[in-house]
Amino acid sequence: MQRYVSEPIENPSAGDEPFERADLVFYGVDHSGPSFEARVYLNRPDADLSTGHDDPAYAGSFTIFGHAGCAGDEGHCDVPAEPRDPFDRRPPHGLTAQTRTVIVTDAVRRASSGDLVVTVVAVRPGADGPSAADLLQFDGFRLLTFS
């Protein structure tokens, strides 16, 4: 996908518990394709490629340095389905999905006291249209706050 819009999630600014920091953590981010920037907006479900960093709803971004495909023998690019032995000291497979964190403290505080809608737009530098359509793939995200 090129754009993801979440269901409404609870805004921690609406609660009684103050927080020092808020992070959006994205899990299972695929980096097997081209490189891209994932721009994160709060309460801007209509954000698209033309929505920039200067938009008041902009919360931050993360970048993926993509592999843009895989070259090698058959099976070389297949990420193992089962975990390795806990004593295996080799690094994980090069295409293992990643976790990315975006610090969104100021954006959460700026947002209204109602629920938050998270919009993520994948932007591939120098490319428009269909070539950017399948950049953004992740398993899920959550909003964490720290006191």
Q: Can you give a write-up of this model?
A:
The chain is 4% helix and 31% strand. The protein has one helix at residues 105-110; strands at residues 3-5, 21-29, 36-42, 58-64, 98-103, 118-123, 140-146. Strands 1-6-3-4 form a 4-stranded antiparallel β-sheet. By secondary structure, it is mostly beta strands. The protein is built from 1 helix and 7 strands; from the N terminus they run βββββαββ. The longest helix has 6 residues, at 105-110.
Name the beta content range: 25-35%
Largest sheet properties: 4 strands, antiparallel
Counting DSSP H or I runs of 4 or more residues, the number of helices is: 1
Q: How much is the average pLDDT? A: 85
Strand order of the largest sheet: 1-6-3-4
Care to count the β-strands?
Answer: 7
Low-confidence residue ranges:
none
**Helix share, percent:** under 10%
- Counting helices, strands and paired strands, the structural category is mainly beta
One letter per element, helices H and strands E, the order comes to EEEEEHEE
Radius of gyration, CA atoms, in whole angstroms: 17 Å
Morphology call? globular
What is the distance, rounded to the nearest whole angstrom, between the alpha carbons of the first and last residues?
34 Å
